[in-house]
Design goal:
The chain is an alpha/beta fold. 36% of the residues lie in helices and 20% in strands. The protein has two domains: 2-137, Up-down Bundle (Four Helix Bundle (Hemerythrin (Met), subunit A)), CATH 1.20.120; 148-348, Rossmann fold, CATH 3.40.50. The protein contains ten helices and 18 strands. The longest helix is centred in the middle third of the chain and has 31 residues, at 114-144. It is globular, with a radius of gyration of 20 Å. The structure holds 5-S-methyl-1-O-phosphono-5-thio-D-ribulose (MRU).
């Protein structure tokens, strides 16, 4: 997708260096950072320099390619297994991360020797990122059919191109519909506590020329009840075999509100987000994040300096689940690269 008119992917590899956009500086500063080894990649995922299910899967795949290049000849497999473990321990909820690490690892293990394992790791990692971009473009094509000319779409968090290699999941249908010449308007939930909607989604939509209003998370019901929302599309971090879906905290309440107001609620996600080993949403691990994210906020001063400001009183405590689970019964359809599937049929989608 385009930034100031130039095409970018969210993450890519040049030689042994992984390159990505420093998402914690957006929308005020656009900076590409170099991650020279898999430890730097692991740190980038856990510190949320890069975030979003698809993007952390893609970068974890490249991280495995770095592991393969770094591993000494003696103790090769010990190093590889430790690297895979390090990458898998960075964040717990997004299935794409585990999918990518396992895919590279399995391909390496099937190689006849270490030289070939190193080569295959690079090839498979690149394939994961290319596949992610292609899957998201296909999601865009299928999802755009749901968006009528003049539609008002509500989305939560950031499931745009910054959350994948390219295009995005929930935002791909919006970008595609726009390119088809449809007029549309997006309500972007701000998505406390980290505000991915206000910070990232609003910026992406601006870059693509899509009209958008950031709304406080607790304003979604107001706009739905007033008849101003035609369709809700969100992304997903993990989809269980019964169609229950984990996505950014606050998604569940949007789905219930959409149901109450007779508004279709769709999930958009590529197949590597589907985890058939999770029978239902109850089995999806939910990340619990730092209290400080809820008790304060990060913003930028008039001098352009990023600053954390405390909102709650000094002794206040907080709880901060990063994700919630939307039961399948609230989901009208799941848009994948294969088309639009009823949640109870998601078992027929093979991850990858
Ligand atoms: O904590 P994050 O920003 O990595 O959260 C993941 C997400 O971006 C959202 O939950 C998104 O809607 C699904 S991932 C494309």
């Amino acid at each position: 997708m385009k930034v100031n008119g130039k095409d970018y992917r969210t993450v890519w590899m040049e030689g042994s260096v992984v390159k990505t956009i420093e998402q914690r500086l957006l929308p005020h500063t656009f900076k590409i950072v170099d991650l020279p080894n898999h430890r730097a990649v692991a740190e980038a995922i856990s510190s949320m320099l890069i975030r979003g299910a698809g993007a952390i899967g893609d970068i974890a795949g490249y991280g495995m390619a770095q592991v393969a290049l770094e591993a000494p000849e003696e103790g090769f497999w010990d190093y590889v297994n430790a690297g895979a473990q390090r990458l898998q321990q960075t964040r717990p909820t997004a299935q794409n991360l585990f999918y990518a690490v396992q895919k590279v690892l399995n391909a390496m293990k099937a190689a006849p020797n270490t030289k070939e394992a190193r080569r295959i790791a690079q090839e498979v990692a690149q394939g994961i990122a290319d596949g992610d971009a292609a899957n998201c473009e296909a999601i865009g094509r299928y999802g755009a059919e749901l968006i009528k000319d003049g539609a008002h779409v509500l989305t939560h968090c950031n499931a745009g191109w910054l959350a994948f290699a390219d295009w995005g999941s929930a935002l791909a249908p919006i970008y595609m519909a726009k390119r088809q010449g449809k007029k549309l308007f997006v309500f972007a939930d701000e998505t406390r506590p980290r505000c991915q909607g206000a910070i990232l989604t609003a910026w992406e939509l601006y870059q693509e020329g899509v009209e958008c209003a950031v709304i406080a998370d607790n304003a979604a019901g107001y706009f739905m009840h007033n008849g101003e929302v035609d369709i809700v599309i969100t992304g997903a971090d993990r989809i269980a075999a019964n169609g229950d879906t984990a996505n950014k905290i606050g998604t569940y309440e949007k789905a219930v509100l959409a149901h109450e107001n007779g508004i279709p609620f769709y999930i958009a996600a590529p197949s590597p987000t589907v985890d058939l080993k999770c029978p239902s949403g109850d089995a999806i691990p939910i990340e619990e994040r730092s209290e400080s994210e809820v008790l304060g906020a990060v913003g930028i001063t008039a001098e352009g300096k990023a600053t954390y400001v405390r909102i709650a009183h000094a002794n206040a405590r907080a709880r901060n689940p990063g994700f919630d689970v939307t039961p399948a019964k609230y989901i009208k359809g799941i848009i994948t690269e294969h088309g639009i599937t009823k949640p109870d049929k998601i078992k027929s989608i093979k991850p990858g």
